[in-house]
Amino acid sequence: MNSDPIAHAHCDGPCGVYDPAAARINAEAVLSMTKKLLVIEMPATDNKEALLAYHNMMTRYIHIKEEQAQKCKEELLILWTDYFKPPHLEKFPELHETFWKAAKLCSHCKVEVNLQSAEKLMEAVKNIHEIFWKSKDRDVEWVLAS
Amino acid sequence: MNSDPIAHAHCDGPCGVYDPAAARINAEAVLSMTKKLLVIEMPATDNKEALLAYHNMMTRYIHIKEEQAQKCKEELLILWTDYFKPPHLEKFPELHETFWKAAKLCSHCKVEVNLQSAEKLMEAVKNIHEIFWKSKDRDVEWVLAS
Amino acid sequence: MNSDPIAHAHCDGPCGVYDPAAARINAEAVLSMTKKLLVIEMPATDNKEALLAYHNMMTRYIHIKEEQAQKCKEELLILWTDYFKPPHLEKFPELHETFWKAAKLCSHCKVEVNLQSAEKLMEAVKNIHEIFWKSKDRDVEWVLAS
Amino acid sequence: MNSDPIAHAHCDGPCGVYDPAAARINAEAVLSMTKKLLVIEMPATDNKEALLAYHNMMTRYIHIKEEQAQKCKEELLILWTDYFKPPHLEKFPELHETFWKAAKLCSHCKVEVNLQSAEKLMEAVKNIHEIFWKSKDRDVEWVLAS
Amino acid sequence: MNSDPIAHAHCDGPCGVYDPAAARINAEAVLSMTKKLLVIEMPATDNKEALLAYHNMMTRYIHIKEEQAQKCKEELLILWTDYFKPPHLEKFPELHETFWKAAKLCSHCKVEVNLQSAEKLMEAVKNIHEIFWKSKDRDVEWVLAS
Amino acid sequence: MNSDPIAHAHCDGPCGVYDPAAARINAEAVLSMTKKLLVIEMPATDNKEALLAYHNMMTRYIHIKEEQAQKCKEELLILWTDYFKPPHLEKFPELHETFWKAAKLCSHCKVEVNLQSAEKLMEAVKNIHEIFWKSKDRDVEWVLAS
């Protein structure tokens, strides 16, 4: 049950049905793909079959990382634009910067194959999870799926 | 951490990053929109401004219910086709029927504005949440966002 | 030609190819659909053919307004997350609030059929157009398509 | 097997895998939804439950008609821009007009709930089916799914 | 014309307008792209222009294969969840397993560049085509576009 | 303001809100990505970290080029099918060929990494921009964002 009356005002549609878990799942996938990419070895260029499998895997993993980073950014921005309201700024004065930086981390994870960026993204999403549930006076555990 | 070796085989992409929470969020939205739709009153047809607001709200809520029911169906089917593997059928012999019925409940929620169907969908998703985490030897709480 | 070196850092993809015109086109469509919706008359309920045409038009216009308001929000957020960088905050200290309010105006235009909100959205996009080109030391005219 | 060498040149991706059947399925759906919409009766405005079911059905059918008409247009345009090549214009000098009119019929089917337009769209797609298979020196039956 | 009354119950929208041809077209594209990928040769790494063309082609073909395999999976699942009803299980007791395996073949075709998997997918879709038309007491030819 | 009465007839939705600027932005992005791709150097195959960054960049740029070329094609086709009407053919007898060739240029830009094709696409979009504004008796400057 939603005990936070602020969230009912002027929302786009499903009032009260916001959950940082959506962004968390995407961020976990970004981290997972980043880790996988970091351990792939390029085969010898004369092994045609292995080279084809290598390209297929690289292209797919890079593409999934891109998609998941994009979805993560979108889910975070929905919380920023649709859930959080002006009264929240009193309690969380750094709200805008928090979301701006988290969105930019999503971009870094696309542009690079960087374990640190992917881990920072997980922390940023976790931080937003904490801010979100605090704003609803609820204590919801941060539970990873992977 | 993923303790289930079965899930690593032949997956579409982010191995281990499956979470019924995605389907849960969508199902909660379907229930929320269904409840909202059930309490809207049609204004007198000579009150042009109220009639316009009524149509805008009805159309939007029906459309959001449709989108969320569709996403719920897609998220559930990803679990069925990509996460669950043949060895799981021994432990969960009713797996196919479970997912088939849950998907059909998503359809019912689109085709009707029916509180019972929306509540049954929540139960179906909860049941799948339980099967999913049981298959991973993990105990993850069923926590609603709304 | 892009004369602003700041914009090259850490972008998601097409460096330098950001243009508020995309958001402007969407905002113009929101205003256009809002105006059309405000002048539709509901026919007598015994004129079956006219009633069907009325519903078709209402549903379509509300749906297009929804889509365009959503695209406008997305285009604006791309500028905020991907184009603008920390050094820009010195010159435009109200950047975050500006984008936050503009995104919320997109939501208002969805939730209501309100001429004032649609016109405010046009002003908000125009303001962002001015901030954007100022940040590039370029003077680009604000030209409406409609 | 593709016996038409012209189709191999400069295509976007899956050379030879073009099939007007995709557009046909969408056109059949447009016709189906149009027929369904034409027989719905608006209930008495004091029957709240029936009115809600009526709005849900109207909104959904109009939305599906819109989607299917849009997909039909897209499928037809893929054939025009990607499959047909300059040498085809000798054999089919009216090619551009044919596709232009068919695309505009898709628009008519969106803008109106008109049985004639929906039937004309089926004929337009059938005509394109015939032109397409003739260009490949193949005789493929026009088979409706509905 | 749809002669099967079972298909009218509880469907998502366009009753009767289901056609395995949609999935067939996607499967043909998967097979086509798989064949193309299997014959591409990697050029010498000092030929910059050829290397760029090679990467462009590889990336595009892998991406199109991915998209088409995903669409094939979606089209098949629409038939499973929306068209087939409980009474069909008597006539086709292996229905669930059939669709589950076909969906998993779509995944195999993404994860690998494997001619056998792509051919098996074609057979799986053909089998579903046969089940589908048998359930409608109709005999519709299996006609390839490529 | 729209001074062209022809454009009001039979349009898909937002009458008067058509703007070639949308296609221009996409074409600029295609050109931008093409230029970037032409200057990337493949690192030595024994430098694992550089090779990974190279693949990530190549895959992303090729994918963005693909997306933007596709969006450009879609935006152009919206103008052709929805904005232009039969009376326009008198003033612009080459209309169909113009759009057909522009759409095919979008395809060339996908299939190749070719600076000439990307520049020709910019010219094609500029030409359509000129035709479009001429049809509205308006003089709108061709202004690049990049």
Gap from first CA to last CA of chain A: 27 Å
Order of helical and strand elements of chain A: HHHHH
Helix-residue proportion of chain A: 55-70%
Total helices of chain A: the number is 5
* Number of E strands of chain A: 0
Q: What's the quaternary structure here? A: homohexamer
Judged by helices, strands and strand pairing, the structural class of chain A is mainly alpha
Instruction: Report the radius of gyration of chain A as a whole number of Å.
Output: 18 Å
Biggest interface goes to: C-F, 27 and 27 residues
Uncertain runs of chain A are: 1-11
Beta-strand residue percentage of chain A: under 5%
Biggest pleated sheet of chain A: none
General shape of chain A = elongated
Give the overall average pLDDT of chain A. Answer: 91
Task: Characterise this structure.
6 copies of one chain form a homohexamer. In chain A, 46% of the residues are buried. Chain A is mostly helical. The model of chain A is unreliable at 1-11 (pLDDT under 50). The longest helix of chain A has 36 residues, at 48-83. In chain A, helix 1 runs antiparallel to helix 5 (115-135) and helix 2 packs antiparallel against helix 4. Chain A has helices spanning 21-38, 48-83, 88-91, 95-111, 115-135. The first copy, chain A, is built from 5 helices and no strands. Chains in contact: A-B, A-C, A-E, A-F, B-C, B-D, B-E, C-D, C-F, D-E, D-F, E-F. Chains C and F meet through helix 1 and helix 2 of C and helix 1 and helix 2 of F.
